[in-house]
Automatic annotation (TrEMBL):
It comes from Juglans regia (English walnut). Residues 128-155 form a coiled coil. The keyword Coiled coil applies. This is Uncharacterized protein. Keywords: Coiled coil.
């Protein structure tokens, strides 16, 4: 009647839980996204999915669409606050910093700083590098267990579901700490852990630093990401490994 259509949904099917424990728990799909024809024509790949429930009985949902992103620069080194929460962090840094070398003075300091940075990159990859992957795996497991409980209640599945939920909350807290630091929205870490908001803030900060086009001295305009990258190298005379240019 209003010309609205139901946007397609990916992921879990149910959006609301009554919050009960055991066999009396029930689910329903009460939350949807309605779009008009103009939106459908402009964002043909748009979908929505339900996020994890927190304090509410309803799942928050996020609408997303495909986005092309190109980068030409390595990611900068960042100290992550969540490292300090790990029991092995300080002993690891002390061990790396105490590695003997033959230099003195500022050269010794520079070498130790560089060595610590390289070691922390590897340590972070081994310890925390699979945070998002672990969260996805736990979310998928919770979805499977939830579907099994919807079909038939079982105490064994119920225990597995609750244990998986606790483990997921631990990994989500780590991810919230990391994203909160990057987005510089630390006041939200203790509140609703909506990772989509953190990602949107991070993307906005990246958008502000993007060079999307270049105007040459002869009036030509370069709008392709590769062309802008090459144009910047030609302007500077020599390629720069730290140059970061992104295009639509």
């Amino acid at each position: 009647m209003c010309g609205l259509i139901d946007l397609s949904c990916s992921g879990q099917r149910m959006s609301c839980c009554n919050g009960h424990v055991g066999a009396s728990r029930s689910w329903a799909k009460l939350d949807r996204v309605l779009i008009n024809n103009s939106f459908s024509a402009r964002f043909q790949s748009a979908q929505y999915k339900y996020l994890n429930r927190k304090s509410s009985y309803h799942c928050p949902l996020v609408v997303y669409s495909d986005l092309l992103f190109t980068t030409y620069s390595p990611s900068p080194f960042r100290f992550l606050n969540m490292w300090c929460l790990h029991n092995d962090f300080l002993p690891f840094v002390k061990e790396v910093w105490s590695t003997p070398d033959q230099t003195t003075g500022l050269m010794k300091l520079a070498i130790r700083l560089k060595g610590t940075k390289v070691a922390l990159r590897a340590w972070n990859k081994n310890i925390f590098g699979r945070v998002e992957g672990n969260i996805r795996a736990l979310e998928e497991r919770m979805e499977v267990l939830e579907n099994q409980l919807q079909s038939e209640f079982s105490e064994e599945i119920e225990v597995d579901f609750l244990v998986t939920k606790i483990e997921l909350e631990l990994w989500e807290k780590r991810e919230a700490t990391r994203l909160g630091q990057i987005a510089k929205k630390n006041w939200l870490i203790e509140g609703d852990q909506n990772f989509t908001f953190f990602h949107s803030v991070i993307n906005q900060r990246c958008q502000k630093g993007m060079i999307k086009k270049m105007v040459l001295s002869d009036g030509r305009i370069l709008e392709n990401a590769k062309a802008v990258h090459n144009g910047a190298e030609n302007y500077c005379g020599t390629p720069s490994p730290r140059l970061g240019l992104d295009g639509d």
